[in-house]
Design goal:
Number of helices of chain A: 2
Number of strands of chain A: 6
Radius of gyration of chain A: 12 Å
Oligomer: heterodimer
Distance between the termini of chain B: 38 Å
Distance between the termini of chain A: 44 Å
CATH topology of chain A: Ubiquitin-like (UB roll)
Largest sheet of chain B: 5 strands, antiparallel
Helix content of chain A: 10-25%
Order of helices and strands of chain A: EEEHHEEE
Shape of chain B: globular
Strand order of the largest sheet of chain A: 2-1-6-4
Strand content of chain B: 35-45%
CATH superfamily of chain B: Molybdopterin biosynthesis MoaE subunit
Structural class of chain B: alpha+beta
Number of strands of chain B: 9
Number of domains of chain A: 1
Radius of gyration of chain B: 17 Å
CATH class of chain A: Alpha Beta
Strand content of chain A: 25-35%
Order of helices and strands of chain B: EHEEEHEEEHEEH
Structural class of chain A: alpha+beta
CATH architecture of chain B: Alpha-Beta Complex
CATH superfamily of chain A: Phosphatidylinositol 3-kinase Catalytic Subunit, Chain A, domain 1
Number of helices of chain B: 4
CATH architecture of chain A: Roll
Largest interface: A-B, 23 and 33 residues
CATH topology of chain B: Aldehyde Oxidoreductase, domain 3
Amino acid sequence: MGSFTLTIRCFGVFRTFGDKLSVSIEPGTSLLQVKEALARQLGESHRSLIDASALANDKSILPKTYVFHDVEDLSILPPVCGG
Amino acid sequence: MTSIRVLISSSALSLEAAVKSVSDPAHGATDTFIGTVRNTHEGKSVTGITYDVHEDLAKRAFHDICLEGQGKWPGTRYYVAHHHGTLDIGGISIVIAVSSAHRAESFAACRYVIEEIKKRVPIWKQEHYLDGMSEWLPGHSLYSRAETLAGSDNS
């Protein structure tokens, strides 16, 4: 299987980049590598924000050790401040 | 009669609905918390706040927090509602109600719920200011908690 595209829904401050982001990756790419790709795409000035943000599917937050093998619908969740 | 009710809504939140939801003939205490939009923040004049919410994960997190509350204070009942969208000054952003047989449990559980929500639930605030500018507020990283839990699991 060749490369595929992850679609990442934006929330909070990430909405300044649009409603969704896309990252093209190879099977076996880790979550940290996806974050690295996002930092390259959005710019180094946003690296600390991306580091502090979580990636999640619609059921749970994905651990930093997570590895992507196929297309998934994701969300990027910046630090939270509800209430 | 469910003992936990959570919701995200873009309509006005109701304190009456919250209190009614947790009412129980065996409970003699109901504690409520209402969060409202304040007109200043760090010296800036605020005109309103937009609340962004990941609804599926937020409702799941609300439920988890209430279940934890029931573990700490058995028999407590919970209602948690959060606004999604923009509110003017004085608008109600969150309503929490907790009932219990006696007051101590309700006070403690209601405090627990709001404090955990601020740290764990995927909700974000964009403040709007009198000068026309807007700003997304900083907050708590969801990975801080996930890593803490992972560390606990390993110990």
